[in-house]
Amino acid sequence: MHNGIFVTGTGTDIGKTYVTALLIKKLHEAGCGTAYFKAAVSGNERDENGSLIPGDAAYVKTISGISQPLDTMCPYIYETAVSPHLASKIEGDPVELEKVRACYERLCREYEYVICEGSGGIVCPIRFDSKTIMLEDIIKSLGLPTIIVADAGLGTINSVVLTCEYMKSHGLVIRGLILNNFHKGSIMEEDNKLMCEKLTGLPVIACVSENDTDIDISAEELKRICSRGGGI
């Protein structure tokens, strides 16, 4: 039985990739075989040979120091910087859950931990044509608990509570919250942390400041969060 977590966020450009890289780095430096996986990534650039490079995966690989081959990280790569459902309408190659699951399960056989990153916020259409696939469908298909990344600043109480309520109502398991762009000692951000915990009943398991190269959670605690037994 594999171990892992699915990292989602309260919106796009909230810092999911940055936080995911730090989580993987933490496990990797603790000697755990750890892989990165993202089902669909859009807004990518081409290399000198014209091949699309999954930018988020390349970033995570660089920051975390893992040796996982880049071509095992993202089964669906799009150039257009829009939601995956629209990118696939423009470029073709729509997401198939069977392929996503097969790629993920292959990693599970090779690595002790697989940390998955979502596209955009939790309400993200991955495919919307003859089939409808939402981000939550991928999470359920992979059978993973989740962590929510949110910005620490103004407005985060609303976005965190709404995201949590949506996820809970759709049967998704949430292990905790991570606040990005956190300024320790800020009265507002310290209060945001407290209110997010009180209003959702979930722990803030880490706070990340700009340009942090480490995340303030122990490797053992992170392993526990990623375990099938779960919880803190």
TrEMBL record:
Residues recorded as binding substrate, renumbered to this chain, are 42
- UniProt keyword annotations, A-Z: ATP-binding, Biotin biosynthesis, Cytoplasm, Ligase, Magnesium, Metal-binding, Nucleotide-binding
What pathway does the UniProt record associate with this protein? Cofactor biosynthesis; biotin biosynthesis; biotin from 7,8-diaminononanoate: step 1/2
Give the signal peptide as a residue range, or say none if absent. Answer: none
Q: Which residues bind Mg(2+)?
A: 17, 56, 117
The annotated active site, in chain numbering, is 38
This protein's GO CC annotations: cytosol
Q: Which GO terms describe its biological process?
A: biotin biosynthetic process
According to its UniProt record, where is this protein located? Cytoplasm
Residues at which ATP binds: 13-18, 56, 117-120, 180-181
Reactions accelerated catalytically: (7R,8S)-8-amino-7-(carboxyamino)nonanoate + ATP = (4R,5S)-dethiobiotin + ADP + phosphate + H(+); (7R,8S)-7,8-diammoniononanoate + CO2 + ATP = (4R,5S)-dethiobiotin + ADP + phosphate + 3 H(+)
Superkingdom of the source species: Bacteria
| SUPFAM superfamilies registered for this protein in UniProt | P-loop containing nucleoside triphosphate hydrolases
- Tell me its EC number(s), please: 6.3.3.3
Q: Does the keyword ATP-binding apply?
A: yes
Which cofactor does this sequence's record say it needs? Mg(2+)
Q: Which CDD domains match?
A: DTBS (cd03109)
Q: What does this protein do?
A: Catalyzes a mechanistically unusual reaction, the ATP-dependent insertion of CO2 between the N7 and N8 nitrogen atoms of 7,8-diaminopelargonic acid (DAPA, also called 7,8-diammoniononanoate) to form a ureido ring.
| Family the UniProt entry places it in | Belongs to the dethiobiotin synthetase family.
Complex formation: Homodimer.
Q: What's the name of the protein? A: ATP-dependent dethiobiotin synthetase BioD
Q: Give the organism the record lists.
A: Ruminococcus flavefaciens
The organism that produces this protein has a lineage beginning with: Bacteria, Bacillati, Bacillota, Clostridia, Eubacteriales
